[in-house]
Specification:
This protein is an alpha/beta fold. The chain has one domain: Alpha-Beta Barrel (TIM Barrel). About 40% of the residues lie in helices and about 20% in strands. The protein has 8 helices and 10 strands. The chain has an 8-stranded parallel sheet with strand order 9-8-7-6-5-4-3-10. A two-stranded antiparallel sheet has the order 1-2. Helix 2 links the parallel strand 4 and strand 5. The longest helix is centred in the last third of the chain and has 17 residues. It binds 1,3,4-trihydroxy-5-OXO-cyclohexanecarboxylic acid. The site of 1,3,4-trihydroxy-5-OXO-cyclohexanecarboxylic acid has 15 residues, from strand 4, strand 7 and strand 9. InterPro entries: Aldolase_TIM, DHquinase_I, Type-I_3-dehydroquinase.
């Protein structure tokens, strides 16, 4: 598996890299969150545009992406519109979703873009091609808040995302039992060992899934979403605690 190097961060090498969500309505608020994250040693930032006052204005969102990227000369910036069914704040028609993502990609300020699978393979491929044409890495994502599908189903989905051109295939499922966490880890391990061409991003949400957010170095998940002040999904671990635990695990694994 080849690491994905973006700015000063090598994703897929060593301990998983931390990422926190920026969930502010205004640019000033987002910049303050980024400052707070940088001070806490966060590696990557996810701008959750579904919280932004610019969400219905692609040109304003593109401009905001430039301002946020300027605050991050060394750390990757992921752009995400998260739909309601996937755990986000609102839902927009696919055409509006594609137009918003294209406007921000074409501004060439962001480093990665999150593309939700529910929009369908044709729209996913269209956005992946647009991202690659502008030097932006594609994270193709799937969320399931109802439960954890079988290992084989998750491996098939991760493989399909990769076939669609994803630089980072990503799945988040809900763990209701510790066995669900094991299922997600087994899918991640199998995908990493047999099929992955680059880094993966997988997690089980909820209290019983938290362990999957910390153990990625061994099982094959290269990035982990953490809580800065507020969590953006259930089961996220505080970023300082996650960094400590993952640094300790990295040391143990190196022995
Ligand atoms: O896709 C993800 C992962 C996530 O849902 C989590 O479970 O940590 C949090 C979201 O902000 C992010 O967009």
């Amino acid at each position: 598996m080849k690491p994905l190097v973006i700015k000063d961060v090598s994703i897929g090498e060593g301990a998983p890299k931390t990422i926190v969500s920026v969930m502010d309505a205004t640019t000033e608020g987002a910049l303050a969150t980024i400052d707070q994250g940088l001070a806490a040693g966060v590696d990557c930032f996810e701008w959750r545009v579904d919280f932004s006052e610019n969400v219905h204005d692609p040109a304003a969102a593109a401009e905001e992406s430039r301002v946020l990227a300027q605050a991050l000369p060394k750390n990757p910036l992921l752009f995400t519109f998260r739909s309601t069914s996937q755990g986000g704040q609102l839902t927009i028609p696919v055409e509006e979703y594609v137009a918003l993502n294209k406007a921000v990609i074409e501004a060439e300020a962001i480093d990665m873009v999150d593309i939700e699978t529910w929009i369908g393979d044709a729209a996913v491929s269209d956005l992946v091609a647009c991202a690659h044409a502008h030097g932006v890495a594609a994270v193709v994502s799937y969320h399931n808040f109802a439960g954890t599908p079988s290992k084989d189903w998750m491996v098939a989905l991760l493989t399909h995302m990769q076939d669609l051109g994803a630089d980072i295939p990503k799945i988040a499922v809900m763990a209701k039992t510790p066995a669900d966490a094991l299922e997600l880890l087994a899918a991640t391990e199998e995908m990493a060992r047999l099929h992955a061409q680059g880094p993966l991003l997988t997690m089980a949400m909820g209290r019983d899934g938290s362990i999957t957010r910390l153990a990625g170095e061994l099982f094959g998940s290269a990035l982990t979403f953490c809580a800065l002040e507020n969590a953006s999904a259930p089961g996220q671990v505080d970023v300082s605690q996650a960094r400590r635990i993952m640094a300790d695990l990295h040391e143990v694994l190196g022995k």
